[in-house]
Amino acid sequence: MTAIQQQAVQLIYQLPDEKIKAIITLAIDELRLMDFQKQEQNLKKKNAFARLEQLHLDLPDDFDADTELASALEEKYGTSD
To answer: Largest CB tally within 10 Å, which of 17, 23, 40, 47?
Structure first.
């Protein structure tokens, strides 16, 4: 348990049950929101990947991305020698 968690527990021990119920409700709502945001982020990533797949790039069978990158970098910046 982290120091901030220990501090929260110590403070909660001092509260009456009605107030603790409110804190529990708040914590549940926050966890749901965090889960929703995570799901939303994953959906955005999946949609972006799906759009990339729909591009249907017609690359030759012998296409080597590493070689192309090295060539483009050398063309733009020159050799590192």
So the answer is: 23
- Angle ∠(76,73,54) on CA atoms, nearest 5: 110
> Considering only CA atoms, which of 80, 62, 61, 59 is closest in space to residue 70?
80
Q: What is the band of 81 on the pLDDT scale with cuts at 50, 70, 90? A: low
Domain layout of the chain by residue ranges: 3-77
Per-residue pLDDT tens digits for 28-48 = 999 999 999 999 999 999 999
Q: How far apart are CA 11 and CA 73, in angstroms?
A: 58
Which residue intervals of the chain are DSSP H helices? 3-13, 17-53, 65-77
User: How far apart are alpha carbons 53 and 15 in whole angstroms?
Assistant: 54
Pull the structure tokens for residue 39: 């799901």
